[in-house]
Amino acid sequence: MHLLCLLSHSSQRSILLKRLGYFIFLCRHDYKNKILVAQHPLLVVSNQTATLVCNYTYNGTGKEFRASLHKGTDSSVEVCFISWNVTKIRSNSTKEFNCQGDHDKDKVIFNLWNMNANQTDIYFCKIEVMYPPPYVYNEKSNGTVIHVKETPIQIQEHQSTIPLWILATVTGILALYSMLITAGFFNYWQKSKKRLYHQSDYMNMTPRHPPYKNKGYPSYAPTRDYTAYRSWQP
């Protein structure tokens, strides 16, 4: 009986050791395949362009990965994604966003452009191990709040292009009219000057009366001979 008790205790001990070893193996395997993601909490966008960096740590043996950017507190909207393996990278974006992803060592970079104020929200990075099994993905991180400021600069530029064309056209027309008016006035002035010159030449050709030599008598009156009056004197 004593021997049977010892055998039963030793078998139970071996079973416990096996279970403990299997549990430790599972814990180590789970820790090895775990993905941790870190994001910057806030990103302010003033020029409609944002660069969101997702830093991650992974110590597993995965060879094919997929990283995606999700919008909203419930991550219901997938903005864009990137998938890569040892030799190839592929990126894609939804129609509502202009987004492109890139992978660089232990981080994934999402570049967004032409953003508007309606796209202000919280964004989450999700990284998945697609192959080989087991399938692993990161726990939900704290996310990044992207605050897009309103920029009415493009609207003003778009509206200002039409008046510039109109202003240039009106200025060209006015300049042309002013040149035509100036040329016409100059031509009229030249013709008027020639006409006045011919009229002055015609007036100078008219004869003039000779001036009187004596104020009391006209120039054609005969002169008196005073010698006839002197003959009667003694």
From TrEMBL:
Keyword Acetylation: no
Parts of the chain that traverse the membrane: 164-189
Gene3D superfamilies: Immunoglobulins (2.60.40.10)
GO-annotated biological processes: immune response; positive regulation of T cell proliferation; T cell activation; T cell costimulation; T cell receptor signaling pathway
GO cellular component entries: external side of plasma membrane
Membrane topology designation: Single-pass type I membrane protein
Subcellular localization, as worded in the UniProt entry: Membrane
Domain Immunoglobulin: 39-149
Domain of life: Eukaryota
Keyword Transmembrane helix appears in the UniProt entry: yes
Keywords: Disulfide bond, Glycoprotein, Immunoglobulin domain, Membrane, Receptor, Signal, Transmembrane, Transmembrane helix
PANTHER family attached to this UniProt entry: CYTOTOXIC T-LYMPHOCYTE PROTEIN, T-CELL-SPECIFIC SURFACE GLYCOPROTEIN CD28
Protein name: CD28 molecule
